[in-house]
């Protein structure tokens, strides 16, 4: 009975997962491996040349008879690997996205790690205040925050103005890869701090004192106690920064200009832009997903290796 | 104890936390190979004292000496002592073996030697077969043993123990008391033990240091502390006792509770006001006569080995432990032998009334006056 009841209570969740996760994923896969083609009356697939020939013929016919007939052809969806193969052309963009997201993730980790540790060591009330300060920028709209960076980084922006007082610059800051990475670090830093903090706050002071008591200096305490104990936080922090960073398109568009397109921009263009081609967009998404899963499995391995030694947090 | 070398000396240590005087000019010598217990109620400064010895807290003033050398500025990892923390503070990411091996690995001990010494310790604390077990899946008692092994494997000269048995149940605590004492004798090292449990302190220690409000009240053997408490606080904290105001007429003669008694104490001023301590178990009951100190039995409770009685003498309330039974309302005589009367200088502390009468005339234990035994 209990078993049945628990099955029943899981039903809404399963339904949710089906509608909002499984079905969309399946649709992406379907789109990625199909394309829409035009066929003639007998069901033969028409090539682009054949269609343009037909269009020309129709134009001539229209001109002769003074009519305004349009070419009407049936459409059919067929299986194809063309989309996936076409992703090949965009691999450099994909790798650039991976590279920039990786840099941003590493910078986030380097900034967030000591910061989270420091926050986790102060008294509980101060911790609350500091965590709120970390989250404070997130209360402001993501777009506004990125716009703010644009005005700071512009050629005639605040930073260059300030530097001109000292006769330095102006520097080209906006529309560079550096600006894109900066935007990623700025926007996703809280997502690194929070998981790290929530793991580190569980490391008791006495555990560190015990390490010191047993003869470990500061570095040994870090490498033998703090680092292994915070590994789960590092793994989830990396995931939470890397995944949104690799697929962002707002940051790269606003801070990277037209020249620093990322894979997210490409996908966006296939659905909403001039290059309208949902099939290709789905294919790129699918490949991106594969790369993300690969990266995540490597990150989780980091965590798992310690699990073998006994990290169970 | 006088002939033995001092291994740790605390000289005039003071420590304040946020304006509160936690340690008020503490001086203490700890001798080699002794089992010394810092005993006192919570907030008395005993844990702070231990943390100062361990190097986790710096004193505001005063010196900490180790083997004659000042170690105030030596960080914990360079001190030749190890600590067993209140909640063990085991490393949750390491198994039993790796927890115990931690100190040796940090010291870059050869692998073979680590293996040998850790297994030796595992044998001593009887954890064979648990080497690969995650420490979080051990019982409290087992975690305790890991903590002991983890500290002792480093061959410290001094082991600091901060209420190590506090989290264990009564039966296990008793077993571990004996175990710890055995280990201390076997390894022949100095133990500095912090507890608020006076029974634990009396059972295990060579020397007991009773502390209260940041001051050392008395240092002595368990027998000294129990039999000759220097003031009302110590008397009250070390077991239950009757503390009464009295007047020392002359050497070996004291007046209290409206009667005169012979005693073994001397060296007080003539007609000096004093506190008199009489242990409940030192009062012998007999038939009341005109010449005896008589009282009315207010309550009687069976405690197994003895009866616990509250007996009223005039306005004073006495606690008596007796193997003899009596009826409530019965008038009995209380006989106190001269060696059972402990006369102490009046302490500056307010008089502690252990028992009060409520409106209905029933006896209630005064709040906060009873020590958890």
Biggest sheet, spatial arrangement of strands of chain B: 6-7-8-3-9-10
- Name the pair of protein chains with the most residues at their interface, and give those residue counts: A-B, 23 and 29 residues
**Beta-strand content estimate of chain A:** under 5%
User: From the 3D coordinates, which CATH architecture of the largest domain in chain A would you assign?
Assistant: Orthogonal Bundle
- The helix tally of chain A amounts to 13
Query: Regions of chain B with pLDDT < 50 over 5+ consecutive residues?
Result: 350-373
Which class best fits the helix and strand makeup of chain B? alpha+beta
Task: Name the CATH class of the largest domain in chain B.
Answer: Alpha Beta
CATH architecture of the largest domain in chain B: 3-Layer(aba) Sandwich
The total beta strand count of chain A reads 2
Give the amount of beta strand of chain B, in percent: 35-45%
Average pLDDT of chain A, rounded to a whole number, is: 87
């Amino acid at each position: 009975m209990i078993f049945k009841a628990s099955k029943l209570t899981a039903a809404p969740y399963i339904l949710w997962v089906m509608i909002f996760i499984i079905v969309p994923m399946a649709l992406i896969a379907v789109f990625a491996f199909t394309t829409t083609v035009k066929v003639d009356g007998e069901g033969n697939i028409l090539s682009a040349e054949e269609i343009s020939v037909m269009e020309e013929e129709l134009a001539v016919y229209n001109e002769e008879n003074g009519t305004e007939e349009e070419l009407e052809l049936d459409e059919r969806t067929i299986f194809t690997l063309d989309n996936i193969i076409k992703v090949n052309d965009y691999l450099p963009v994909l790798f650039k996205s991976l590279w920039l997201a990786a840099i941003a993730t590493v910078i986030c980790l380097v900034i967030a790690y000591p910061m989270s540790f420091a926050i986790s060591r102060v008294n509980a009330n101060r911790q609350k205040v500091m965590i709120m300060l970390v989250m404070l920028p997130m209360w402001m709209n993501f777009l506004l925050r990125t716009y703010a960076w644009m005005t700071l980084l512009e050629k005639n922006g605040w930073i260059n103005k300030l530097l001109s007082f000292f006769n330095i610059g102006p520097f080209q800051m906006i529309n560079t890869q550096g600006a894109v990475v900066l935007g990623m670090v700025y926007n996703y830093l809280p997502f690194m701090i929070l998981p790290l903090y929530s793991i580190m706050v569980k490391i008791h002071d006495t555990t560190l004192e015990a390490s010191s008591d047993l003869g470990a200096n500061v570095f040994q305490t870090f490498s033998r106690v703090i680092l292994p104990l915070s590994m789960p936080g590092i793994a989830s922090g990396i995931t939470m920064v890397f995944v949104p960073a690799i697929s962002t398109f707002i940051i790269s568009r606003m801070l990277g200009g037209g020249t620093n397109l990322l894979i997210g921009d490409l996908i966006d263009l296939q659905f909403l832009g001039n290059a309208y081609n949902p099939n290709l967009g789905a294919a790129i998404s699918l490949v991106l997903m594969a790369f993300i899963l690969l990266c995540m499995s490597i990150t989780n391995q980091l965590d798992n290796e310690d699990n073998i030694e006994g990290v169970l947090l | 104890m006088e002939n033995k070398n001092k291994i740790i000396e605390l000289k005039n240590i003071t420590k304040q936390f946020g304006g509160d005087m936690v340690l008020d000019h503490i001086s203490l010598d700890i001798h080699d190979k002794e089992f010394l217990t810092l005993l006192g109620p919570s907030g008395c400064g005993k844990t702070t004292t231990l943390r100062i010895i361990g190097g986790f807290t710096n004193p505001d003033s005063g010196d900490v000496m180790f083997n004659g050398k000042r170690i105030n500025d030596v960080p914990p990892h360079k001190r030749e002592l190890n600590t067993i923390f209140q909640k063990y503070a085991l490393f949750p990411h390491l198994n039993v073996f790796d927890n115990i091996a931690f100190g040796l690995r940090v010291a870059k001990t050869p692998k073979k030697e680590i293996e040998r010494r850790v297994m030796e310790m595992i044998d001593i604390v009887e954890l064979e077969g648990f080497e690969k077990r995650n420490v979080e899946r051990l019982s409290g008692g087992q975690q305790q043993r890991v903590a002991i092994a983890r500290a002792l494997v480093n061959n410290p000269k001094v082991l600091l123990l901060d209420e190590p048995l506090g989290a264990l149940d009564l039966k296990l605590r008793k077993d571990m008391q004996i175990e710890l004492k055995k280990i201390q004798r076997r390894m022949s090292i100095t133990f500095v033990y912090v507890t608020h449990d006076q029974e634990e302190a009396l059972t295990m220690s060579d020397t007991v240091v009773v502390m209260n409000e940041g001051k050392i009240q008395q240092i002595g053997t368990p027998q000294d502390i129990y039999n000759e408490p220097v003031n009302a606080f110590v008397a009250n904290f070390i077991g239950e006792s009757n503390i009464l105001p009295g007047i020392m007429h002359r050497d070996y003669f004291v007046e209290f509770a409206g009667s005169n008694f012979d005693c073994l104490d001397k060296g007080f001023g003539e007609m000096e006001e004093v506190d008199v301590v009489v242990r409940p178990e030192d009062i012998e009951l007999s038939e009341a006569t005109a010449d005896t100190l008589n009282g009315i039995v207010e309550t009687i409770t069976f405690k197994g080995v003895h009866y616990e009685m509250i007996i009223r003498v005039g306005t004073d309330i006495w606690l008596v432990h007796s193997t003899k039974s009596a009826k409530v309302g019965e008038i009995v005589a209380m006989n106190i032998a001269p060696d059972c009367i402990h006369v102490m200088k009046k302490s500056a502390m307010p008089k502690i009334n252990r028992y009060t009468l409520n409106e209905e005339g029933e006896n209630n234990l005064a709040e906060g006056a009873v020590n958890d035994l």
